[in-house]
Amino acid sequence: MIEFNFEARRKLRAGFVGAGLHAYRNIYPAFRYAPVDLLAIADHHPEKASAFARLFGAERWYTNHAEMLEREKLDAVFLCLNFDADGFPRYPPVVVDALAAGCHVWMEKPPAATTSEVEEMMRAAESAGRYVAVGYKKMFLPTYERVGELIRGGQLGRVTSASMRYRLALPAAAQRDNHKAWTGFMDLCHPASALHMLLGPTEEVTFRRTGSAGGVGALLRHESGVVTTLHLTGGQAQTSPLERLEIVGEGANVVVENCARLIHYRSGGAVGTAGYGRSPTFLGPDSTAPVIWEPEFSLGQLYNNSLFLEGYAQQIRYFCDCVLENAAPTRG
């Protein structure tokens, strides 16, 4: 059951840095379902900062995040920023500033362009004794969470292989040193974070470019021994579903199509009612038939709202709960 913002007995005193369209659509609205008391917003465009403050209920707005951190007494800061002129995510220095001000930090992905920047933020968090989380929303998709439950519950048996299809194009080899060309490819964190959550760390990656459109065929080997094929479908139609996941176990498998349709092919299922070549029907016993879950869209419910279908609201709520309970986030 979701607790609405106005029902929360304890709330984080929060600031927000960023007033862009993604934040407008997907992050600020998620605060309606999280224990957040939004006190201040900072953005270098004063007209946007003031408009967002009025719209989303912040008491004050600033054009400089450093001024906000100095003047406000905040528990946490949420960051939703874009890339700088060189194609690098803007998060690292702002995260370090927020941590130095004593704030826990949630930031949208991607957190950085280099491992050295990530390590710097990790050191700053450890020194400040504060938590930092990244918005890997795929770790909070209801369908992927159910897949994780099936794996942990043994309903697939031992996982033996997996496949993930995701619309993404690898920049041309000639663009290897052009950071601007790689900003879109940083969305690789979406399929990668889902696979990491479900199958554990990856120890080996091999890949081949599949054509001029930037498609990629990759083979991942996880520390658990599971092998995953990752198909990045650069060149596919814009009207095509973006994503498909399949986890194969022992006599059972589960498929998630377009993030919102889950099919569990259960162990022991049979096609038809007789032996091979003798069954007049493809319908088998209901007790072991595939289980299919998909949302209905006729009612104004939370479960068919994109904030919940895509995991935005859940990831914000999870971070807030971790901070309030003084528990280090393990997702994101």
Plain-language structure description:
The chain has 332 residues and is of the alpha/beta class. It folds into two domains: 5-136 and 306-324, NAD(P)-binding Rossmann-like Domain (Rossmann fold), CATH 3.40.50; 142-258 and 261-293, Dihydrodipicolinate Reductase, domain 2, CATH 3.30.360.10. It has helices spanning 21-27, 46-56, 65-71, 91-100, 115-128, 142-152, 189-199, 306-309, 312-324; strands at residues 12-17, 36-42, 60-62, 76-79, 104-108, 132-135, 161-166, 202-209, 216-222, 227-232, 243-248, 253-257, 261-265, 291-293. The strands form two sheets. Strands 8-9-10-7-11-12-13-14 form an eight-stranded mixed beta sheet. The chain has a six-stranded parallel beta sheet with strand order 3-2-1-4-5-6, sandwiched between helices. Strand 11 (243-248) and strand 12 (253-257) form a beta hairpin. The longest helix is centred in the middle third of the chain and has 14 residues, at 115-128.
Query: Structural class from helices and strands?
Result: alpha/beta
Radius of gyration: 22 Å
Total DSSP E strands: 14
CATH class of the largest domain: Alpha Beta
Shape: globular
The CATH architecture assignment of the largest domain turns out to be 3-Layer(aba) Sandwich
| CATH fold field value of the largest domain | Rossmann fold
Classify the beta-strand content into a percent band.
15-25%
Largest sheet: 8 strands, mixed
Q: Report the uncertain regions.
A: none
One letter per element, helices H and strands E, the order comes to EHEHEHEHEHEHEHEEEEEEEHH
**Strands ordered across the widest β-sheet:** 8-9-10-7-11-12-13-14
Q: Tally the helices: what do you get? A: 9
Q: Structurally, how many domains make up the residues?
A: 2
CATH level 4 superfamily of the largest domain: NAD(P)-binding Rossmann-like Domain
